[in-house]
Write a structure and sequence with these properties.
With 467 residues, the protein is of the alpha/beta class. 26% of the residues lie in helices and 28% in strands.
Amino acid sequence: MRIAVIGGLAAGPAAAAEASRLGADVVLFEQSPHVSVGACEMPYYVGRTLTPGASLEVLTPEALARTKGVEVHVRHRVTSVDVSRGRLTVDALDYGSTREEAFDRLILATGARARRLGVAGEDAAGVFTLRQLDDAHAMRAWLDTEDVRHVVVAGGGYIGLEIAEAVRDRGLRATILDPGGRVLPTGFEAVVTVQMQDAVRMSGVAVRAERITGVRTDASGRIASVTTDRGEIIGCQALVVAVGVETRTELARSAGLVIGESGGIRTDAGMRTSARTVWACGDAAEVLRPVDGTRLVWPLAPTGRQTARVAARNACGGSATFAGVTGAVGVRAFGVEAASVGVTEPEAREAGLDAVCVQVRALSRVKQMPGATPLDVRLVAERGSGRILGGQLVGREGAILRADVLVPLVRLGATARDLAEDLDLIYTPPVAPAVDPLRHCAEHLVRALDASAAGGRFAGRRPRRAR
């Protein structure tokens, strides 16, 4: 059985390797020169904070072919899929030729592209996105060789934050422009991100509530400034567009596959698409978030690899299932960690869930230990059942790994009382206090739920003092 895989990065190679391990004849097509790249490491490559000599290429095409038994064709673009005939039309970009390739089963791992601003002048020299390996090389070379003093970053999300920090690490000025006027606008409520906001401001990075409406260039075609929706002209020598991604679904659409409301390829629990012989995985596939029943695109490498293995096993005749994503993300920038698991209170309410939310401020370590710092914890639970729906943590230490504790709790439907009363979380003074910040917040959440059940009122959404 011949299985064709379209796409590289995380999902494509994982699907190809798994299908080959199961005995299939596997061929992979990728239009770039690279099949497996560490995309999340790119901001640190730009900022020169990676280990000297470290490569962003996780697996070369030659290594994938040699170690996994996959037939690999880079610089090959698949332009059309004929599902009924089991044929792909493939352009060999280096040779200017086109041919047909046969397949019995197809796995789409076409991924996502960086979203653009869609404004005049965006193609100027010095304007970058950060998605492909060549993007990272080009941006680092620009900062190394051009007279760059000020970098504008469009978007205050994870990549925007990391790029702004990388720019500051290089001793350059950075400004973040985000319509909401704050960092971490997605997945976090503003009330819990105060420490990150303060850290960004204290570093000298400005965060402005503006949207870019145009890019101006100098006589040589290099970026000279950006214009905003407030009529401002901001001079800069580089612009990084970090406003999210959009799925690459052109092939799927042309093949007649169903696309979900999220914009991703609609799949079932086995990652099968609406066509019997086609599966999808990674950033292009729509997946379920069980905590609230939302179907969404979740463009992160762990999800890409998980969905890829499920797709490959089923393309080989198996019956594997993907249970969906918990929705866990984290970022560390400007000395502050921020992590989010599950859903926020607004997201819960939008999904029709009756949510109760509390927020506390506790200490990351025993207060007598040097280095103890405030940690803001916000938990969301379902009224009545007490089921934990999500949580957000922000602080200078301990936020991300504590969020990992929340992942199985949200995933398995644990309640606030389970966390507050039944879990014996680790206590060791240099790392964690006797009452862990997570448990401390859960205790307040239980009180809020109990008061709600009794018909009382609970003013528990204001951050409390560290203890």
